[in-house]
Every structure is written in C-alpha cells, then in structure tokens.
Amino acid sequence: MQQRPLGRTGRSVSAVGLGTWQLGADWGAVSEEDATAVLAASADRGVTLFDTADVYGDGRSESIIGRFLGGRPGHGITVATKMGRRLEQEPENYTPANFRAWTDRSRANLGVDTLDLVQLHCPPSAVIDDDATYDALDALVSGGAIAAYGVSVETCAQALAAIARPNVTNVQIIFNPFRLKPLDEVLPAAEAAGVAIFARVPLASGLLSGKYTAATTFAENDHRTYNRHGEAFDRGETFSGVDYEVGVDAATELAAALPDGVSLPAATLAWIAAQPGVTSVIPGARNVRQAQSNADAADLLDGGFDVDAFDAVVREVYDRRLREAIHPLW
Predict the structure, then answer these.
(1) Fewest Cβ atoms closer than 10 Å to its Cβ: which of 139, 161, 187, 272?
(2) What contacts 24+ positions apart, CB below 8 Å, involve 10-13?
(3) How far apart are CA 112 and CA 53, in angstroms?
(4) Model confidence pLDDT, tens digit, residues 102-153
(5) Selection from 161, 218, 164 nearest residue 194 by Cα
(6) How many Cα atoms sit within 13 Å of 211 on the Cβ side?
C-alpha cells in the first residue's frame, strides 16, 4: 500500500483509507463484531487512515475504533475524526467552549489524550471564513487536545477558503467520477499549499459499485432511503447528489469500458487516488470482503491498469450525462 504525506504533520497515511460512517449504523445495522472485522481487514491490508466523526452512531464509530486500536499497540494508524454536527450548524455554535467539549468527548470515545486529526464537519461558509475559528483550533493544538486540524467541506469554494489557511492540514471533499469539479482548482491549490486531500463518498454511496439497478432498494434506516432528496442533511452526501437512475446508467457505462478482471469500484478508487493532489481516498465498507477489495484497489496504482484510458471515459460520461445535472457549487 502506498503511504503518502499527511500535509505538514510528518505523518504518512495510506493512498486508500477507510471511511467509517457505516460503523455507526447509518447504512443499516452493523454489529460491533462485524465492524471490528472490517477494521482488522483494512489494517491487515496496509490501511493506515481511519476517518470517523463524533456523530456517526452518536459516537459508536469512534468508540469501536478506540477499542480496536487499544488492542493493537504500535498500530501506526491515523484516526481522523470530525466535529461540529452535535448542534445545529449555525455559526454561533462554533465556539471555543463547544470545540473543547466536542474534542473531549471524542478523546474519551477513542481512548486517547490527543486526537490525531480533527476536521470541522461541513460547517457553514461563515465559519470557514472566520479567523476566530482557526484561533480556537490553534488553541486546541497548543493545549495538546489535538495534534492537527482540517475541514470537511461541501463546495469547492469552501475548500479553497480552507486551503488558504496556514495551519489547515487537510481538506475533505466529495470527489469521484460523478463529481469532477475539484479537478479544476481544488486539487491544484491543495498540492501547491501542501494541504492533504481526502476524497470522500468515492463510490457515490455505492452507485459506483456497479451492482445497483433501478430496482434496488435500501433499508428504511439507510440514508440512501431517507436522504435521497436531501430530507435529513445535504443531498450531496447521498449518491453524490446525482439522481439515482441517472447514476445507475452512468455507472453501467463506466463498467462496460473496463478490461476483464478490473471491477468498477477498484478502477474508481485507483483513478481517484491517482489524481495529483489527492492524498487518500476513503471508501466505506460494511464487511470484510468490501474492506479487502477496497484496500486491494491500491494495487492498480502499481501498474496493470490504464488510468489515463479510464480517465478519458470518466470525463466523456460526465460531460454527456452528469455535468448539467450537478449543482453548480459542487
């Protein structure tokens, strides 16, 4: 597994990491035994980045990760958590006191004195633009509660604003074959500034798994049912904001362009990880097989897969099917 610099922290993280939203059971029920098996399978394949958040299962994801890593001394894994969604996402709630309370809770969940990396969890633009935000985060670093901080964003404009801040370690943004706008400015700006990029929602909530059809259904407690049109949170978090049926058709086209033996999710993860400026791509996994397959996609970066040929197909399908359907801010 390729290991890449995590901004200016001196740490390195794997080219393919693990997103753990699903371990909080927001994608349907996942037992702690199964969640732990996913973490172990990922670590055993060379994954050194676990991305989580304090609201994933109201802390369940963090707690499971904490118990797992507690049993693996010297594990070498960076845990990137997120904060800012325990209250309404209003600028007045992003205070030093709340930052301290949220990070203290995450430290307890993860069983650590210092959090490796804390990311603001898709805050309003006013928070990203406010000097006071970074003063409060710098104070947490100085006090030893966190080692580094970053920002998870919804839009490219927010990403560029965060990248411009001198102590931001990383920006997390939705980036996949259905969301190409970060290629234009965000990735070049991050690379120039030495800011790490985590590509989230890389498989478009499973649309780029290549196994869904127009008839596929999801559990009632799965956000792919209850947030399909943005009913619960930002629509872009579910299927990357793409109309489900349009996404199914686009994924079918992409899969048909691949050589024998290369799956659509593996090709997608490798394509994302190969883009200049991307530090790590963070797919989720609900079972061991998915975790192993995701990690193994990094092998395609070492040859045997024509990333440039797939890139041409991705751009053609995007221009023809998706560009006009994507919100202009994304």
Answers:
(1) 139
(2) 11/78, 11/116, 12/48, 13/48, 13/49, 13/78, 13/196, 13/279, 13/280
(3) 15
(4) 999 999 999 999 999 999 999 999 999 999 999 999 999 999 999 999 999 9
(5) 164
(6) 9
